[in-house]
């Protein structure tokens, strides 16, 4: 059956789990006593261990970035458009590591894991993570994998923030940073959307202060609403217009409040429904908080150039014209800070109608530049 | 290397910081980086050119010159270069003043509309010149702001900028005797080195 996979796919992949016994000190002041990180790798680590690329995922992402878990999988990993033999992140050249961040709900220790201190799921007791905490945990994973220095750390959106943080926290350990559809910190509007999503979850009667698993329920409605709000910000007005317009599900209007009438309503409900069945509500809260807190320049009075001065990496920054969640202006803030601190940087503003989601799409100009940049990385 | 770039590179000191406006495929910056230890950025808007720059390892930033250089600090570059783009921007005066602000010196090249062929074409045919060198029709051209050497030098004077060097060359970038004697008549391309930095102006070209 494996012959059924496309030629440029990494094919069948099996997630791996790394256990860590040493506590991880967190920004919130607490420790995560023991934990596990679930990850996947694609390609081979070379003898010099110089070809490793770290993939950092966004809000609802996970370790399964490329390939298939089973021949019956309908869809490949979430960034399969960019990872594989001959693709932008060429697995013939690079050894790619993709993990599920701590606090996640796809195999790494998170709120739905059992708290060894109580024998019950962590739930609301799971500590709040920051982007920097994740970077520290990723560095430990790198240590275990024998990777002293990444050829590149790559991520889109919240993943791009982790890539940037790597160059600040571990400047010696990153040669190239690719921050795609990202931002140096959230705007008030970004935080506002996150807060609406969090309130949807927190006020769901099934949330039970975060300990819903102990009650045998999930805050499905809250999670669904959170995803619906989030999803609106991932698409552009044009993309939504193009996809749904004012199209109706049925022939005529029903003049009531219960029917799903417009196509866009149906789509959002489907997205919310699907998401609420597979994602943990506490993880959603944690991820949005990590986004809100991310502001590496705060340590230097808001001076991003000064913050990035320690970086030793070369940078590629890509943005998409219709992305209004993290607009091109946000990427340009990163680029301006990089030029002010005299770093090597390439910046592309890709004309694409898909909005924030564009970073996941096979847009020719984006993939071409992405490939060109990755191809010239010496390993 | 493109002939005009070969002339320009000679005017760029080794180890300097260079901003190349409309850097094209990154040829100049790639050469300067490899041969003169220059550190630089190129601004470009053409997708194919940007892709080539990325492949070459040139620091290319997608940025429209018509939106200014507000993201670069005063005198943050030793040299700001703009080749064959002055006539294509919406506000040549604004971009010149931005270049003078950001760069300690500026190198600018542009086609001379005062060249005898342009004058002859306009005088004899009464129509906007079209040639092998400038092949566009007036209604469909990227070159929306043609000027002559004389016009450009007036603009520089108006912005208190000093012309440090001027080379008038023909289309093959040869600086012949005629373009040395009567540049505005026989020079097809102007290559200027200009500075707005007052300290550097003292005693030069006066």
UniProtKB/TrEMBL annotation, chain A:
- Asked if the Swiss-Prot or TrEMBL record annotates the protein with the keyword Transport, the reply is no
Q: Which residues bind substrate?
A: 227, 357
Q: Where is this site: Important for acyl-CoA specificity?
A: 325
Pathway given in the UniProt record: Amino-acid biosynthesis; L-methionine biosynthesis via de novo pathway; O-succinyl-L-homoserine from L-homoserine: step 1/1
Domain AB hydrolase-1 span(s) in chain numbering = 51-359
Active site per UniProt: 157, 323, 356
What's in the GO CC field? Answer: cytoplasm
Q: Which transformation does this protein catalyse, written as a reaction?
A: L-homoserine + succinyl-CoA = O-succinyl-L-homoserine + CoA
Q: What does this protein do?
A: Transfers a succinyl group from succinyl-CoA to L-homoserine, forming succinyl-L-homoserine.
Q: According to its UniProt record, which protein family does this protein belong to?
A: Belongs to the AB hydrolase superfamily. MetX family.
Describe the protein's quaternary organization and the partners it interacts with.
Homodimer.
The protein's name: Homoserine O-succinyltransferase
Gene name of the record = metX
């Amino acid at each position: 059956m494996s012959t059924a996979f496309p030629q440029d796919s990494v094919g069948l992949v099996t997630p791996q789990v790394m256990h860590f016994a040493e506590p991880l000190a967190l920004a919130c002041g607490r420790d995560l006593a023991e934990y596990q990180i679930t990850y996947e790798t694609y390609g081979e680590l070379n003898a010099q261990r110089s070809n490793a690329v770290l993939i950092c995922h966004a809000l609802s992402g996970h370790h399964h970035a490329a390939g298939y878990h089973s021949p019956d999988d309908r869809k490949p990993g979430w960034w399969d458009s960019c990872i594989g033999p001959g693709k932008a992140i060429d697995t013939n050249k690079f050894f790619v590591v993709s993990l599920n961040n701590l606090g996640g709900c796809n195999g790494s220790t998170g709120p739905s894991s059992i708290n060894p201190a109580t024998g019950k799921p962590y739930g609301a007791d799971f500590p709040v993570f920051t982007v920097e905490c994740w970077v520290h945990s990723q560095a430990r994973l790198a240590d275990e994998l024998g990777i002293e220095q990444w050829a590149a750390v790559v991520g889109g959106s919240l993943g791009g923030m982790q890539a940037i943080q790597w160059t600040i926290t571990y400047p010696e350990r990153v040669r190239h940073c690719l921050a795609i559809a990202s931002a140096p910190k959230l705007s008030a509007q970004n935080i506002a959307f996150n807060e609406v999503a969090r309130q949807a979850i927190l006020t769901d009667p099934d949330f039970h202060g975060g300990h819903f698993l102990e009650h045998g329920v999930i805050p499905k409605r809250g999670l669904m609403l959170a995803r619906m709000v989030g999803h609106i910000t991932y698409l552009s007005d044009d993309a939504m217009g193009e996809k749904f317009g004012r199209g109706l599900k049925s022939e005529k209007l029903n003049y009531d409040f219960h029917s799903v009438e417009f196509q866009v309503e149906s789509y959002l409900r489907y997205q919310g429904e699907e998401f609420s069945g597979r994602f943990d509500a506490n993880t959603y809260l944690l991820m949005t908080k990590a986004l809100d807190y991310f502001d590496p320049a705060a340590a230097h009075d808001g001076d991003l150039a000064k913050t990035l001065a320690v970086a030793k990496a070369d940078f590629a920054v890509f943005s998409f014209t219709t992305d209004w969640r993290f607009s091109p202006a946000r990427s340009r803030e990163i680029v301006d800070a990089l030029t002010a601190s005299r770093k090597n940087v390439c910046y592309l503003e890709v004309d694409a109608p898909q909005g924030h989601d564009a970073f996941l799409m096979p847009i020719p100009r984006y993939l071409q530049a992405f490939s060109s940049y990755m191809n010239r990385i010496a390993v | 290397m493109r002939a005009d770039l070969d002339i320009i590179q000679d005017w760029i000191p080794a180890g300097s910081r260079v901003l190349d406006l409309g850097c094209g495929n990154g040829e100049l910056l790639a050469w300067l980086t490899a041969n003169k230890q220059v550190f630089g950025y190129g601004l470009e808007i053409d997708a194919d050119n940007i892709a080539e720059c990325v492949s070459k390892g040139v620091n290319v930033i997608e940025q429209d010159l018509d939106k200014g250089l507000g993201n670069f600090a005063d005198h943050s570059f030793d040299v700001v270069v703009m080749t064959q783009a002055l006539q294509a921007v919406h506000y040549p005066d604004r971009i010149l003043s931005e270049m003078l602000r950001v760069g300690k010196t500026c190198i600018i090249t542009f086609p001379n509309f005062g060249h005898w062929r342009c004058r002859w074409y306009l005088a004899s045919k009464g129509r906007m010149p079209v040639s092998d060198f400038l092949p566009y029709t007036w209604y469909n051209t990227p070159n929306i702001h043609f000027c002559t050497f004389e016009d450009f030098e007036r603009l520089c004077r108006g912005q208190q900028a000093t012309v440090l060097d001027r080379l008038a060359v023909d289309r093959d970038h040869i600086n012949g005797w005629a373009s040395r004697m009567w540049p505005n008549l026989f020079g097809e391309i102007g290559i200027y080195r200009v500075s707005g930095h007052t300290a550097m102006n003292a005693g030069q070209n006066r």
